[in-house]
Amino acid sequence: MKLDLPPDWKKELQEEIKKEYFQNLLQFVKQEYEENTCFPPQDLIFNAFKHSGFENTKVVILGQDPYPNPGQAHGLCFSVNDGVKFPPSLKNIFREIENDLNKPIPLSGNLERWADQGVLLLNATLSVRARETGSHQNKGWEIFTDSVIRIISAKKENVVFLLWGGFAQKKVKLIDQTKHLVLTSGHPSPLSANRGYWFGNKHFSQTNKYLQKKGKKPIDW
Fold it and tell me: Which segments constitute the Uracil-DNA glycosylase-like domain (predicted)?
């Protein structure tokens, strides 16, 4: 499988992508895409990195793995292609933005507009077999994406990490909280949101206040 990382990220991750586990991972993914229907499309596996360059990244949102249904996943966590019905978690994200920032719910669930402003929409696992959630977990993707988080933490300053739900919150140990802002809450999925663990977290306004305080342009959510 072609390693489709843009040059700036490839430079930052050059030691990681040489490692044996990563080469084995690429081989596994290549075989999976040859033998099964997998998502996102192969040329969009590293899409999050293409939209949010290393220097440009100022917010990191962490998801678990791509949507497993046809037409949804395009390489950015929580995001779907234009014209695709909003999955429940994304609907709740937009509802929280509406409540927090008084912004209307958008017509499209495509979050490339966030990514292009420096929001790295990173899934812990970057590929999945169709209709089989978690089917590409524990094959090496999580080692790779943990390294991405570590490198951002080590080499950058004043990045906002949004960790939603128990899985994402475990990544807090990878982040130096003396130089970055970490915001945690329940997951936006209906199960968590309806129990009161999501709505009212005000993560989007808090993120923008922090960025402005640090002299950075806020995100147009």
Answer: 50-211
